[in-house]
Amino acid sequence: MAQEDIFKKIVAHCKEYGFVFQSSEIYDGLSAVYDYAQNGVELKNNIKKYWWDSMVKLNENIVGIDSAIFMHPETWKASGHVGAFSDPLIDNKDSKKRYRADVLVEDYIGKLEDKIEKEVVKGRKKFAEGFDEEQFRATNVNILRNKTKIDDINSRFVAALEADNLEEVRQVIIDLGIVCPVSGTANWTEVRQFNLMFDTKLGSVADDANTIYLRPETAQGIFVNYLNVQKTGRMKLPFGIAQIGKAFRNEIVARQFIFRMREFEQMEMQFFVRPGEEMEWYNKWMDTRLKWHKALGFDQDNYRFHKHEKLAHYANAASDIEFRFPFGFKEVEGIHSRTDFDLSQHQKHSGKKLQYFDPELNKSYVPYVIETSIGVDRMFLLTMAAAYDEEVVEGGETRVVLRIPPALAPVKLAILPLTKKDGMPEKAREIMKTMQMDFNCQYEEKDSIGKRYRRQDAIGTPYCITVDHQTLEDNTVTLRDRDTMQQERVAIADLFNIVNNKVSMRNLFEQIL
Fold first, then answer.
1. Planar angle of CA 44, 337, 49, nearest 5 degrees
2. How many domains are contained in the chain?
3. To 5 degrees, how large is the angle CA 104–CA 107–CA 111?
4. What does the pLDDT read at residue 383?
5. What residue numbers bound the domain in which 128 lies?
């Protein structure tokens, strides 16, 4: 099945089974804005808990905050967002569609990278056990040709962006023969910069109000609070501050479902270190964050690091953790060495000292910062894309199952009476009352047991228990596993331990410590 078709099925599945709805759908929706439905919000909350606990609970030198969405407008001048937070946009005159110029070039490079990976796959098949991938990549003519082309494009395009040479940005697109996906033509307009921040007014009278901004990132709320946290928490370097919160960007080119939205949620941690030690911590956090992702058990070949060729104005090193979505490798998380840029800028603009006194060195300085930033919505989409599976089962039927890691599953346990009579519903409700104190459970008695199993498969429920006639005799139930569909008879008294061992986040944490 084509990857594009798989993605369409995932999007449809999200609506049909209560994960994601179009915002304001009864009014024909609002573009690039989505609501998380009953199962979606549970999955989203579990993702956030996995991230939060892995940061704050497992690291004694990391604490959390929850800063306000509205901030003093000078914050965004200091951070550079007012003057430089923009995207290079280009329009196709025939289709009237607007695109981000950098995304067009990234997609072109992505196709070249796909060609390289296909060559590697061919080589692996050809040479089997004797395959040396490193040597193959270093010697294969087709790989070297495409790699040289990628390097040349990156070098030219990054130079154009850094020089703010929009004419050259357009020329790169023309020279590469990039066409509009809709019209198929290269009839492009000039490239223009567009600021991404939403602004609003603060005050009761519009004429007298100050212009403020909806924050485009959560990081600045950490930076302006860093010294308060350090002093009140008696924190010693190195230490981190974690935050989960909403951010807003006026994306002109919003696409790919919830991958790029105008209202989104971030999980960010800023780690404050001594100047000169930032690269050591940068590398450590790259390893730690990749472990966090891989602990979920998805195909490890779908992850890779992408080193930034063009660095942001605040960074001296930056890499992304990318995941292979149905529409290609895309960024899920960024790890950046932000130097002392943010704190120094806020110190300058506010007139307040933001220095840390280091008792070991007996001197004060502005710390350097390592940032890890992951999009909750992108992580949600990653989980759905990696978990979605269509499987032909006995009898030729195709079942759709979400193989969501049990710790993240929206519903942990479904409790199903075999019939609506003979005391089975009452017994099932009794079990439900006990189990729902520890797990998010669902009770269901409508339709055949097979149909109910399929519905639970489709929302990713790890376990289903069936209450039947034997239950009433010996206090045992049938426990069904989502992934294997195997059923076993277990005592009601053992249910908690069995389910807890399967769905506990401890299983994930043990892999990243």
1. 20
2. 3
3. 140
4. 97
5. 86-194
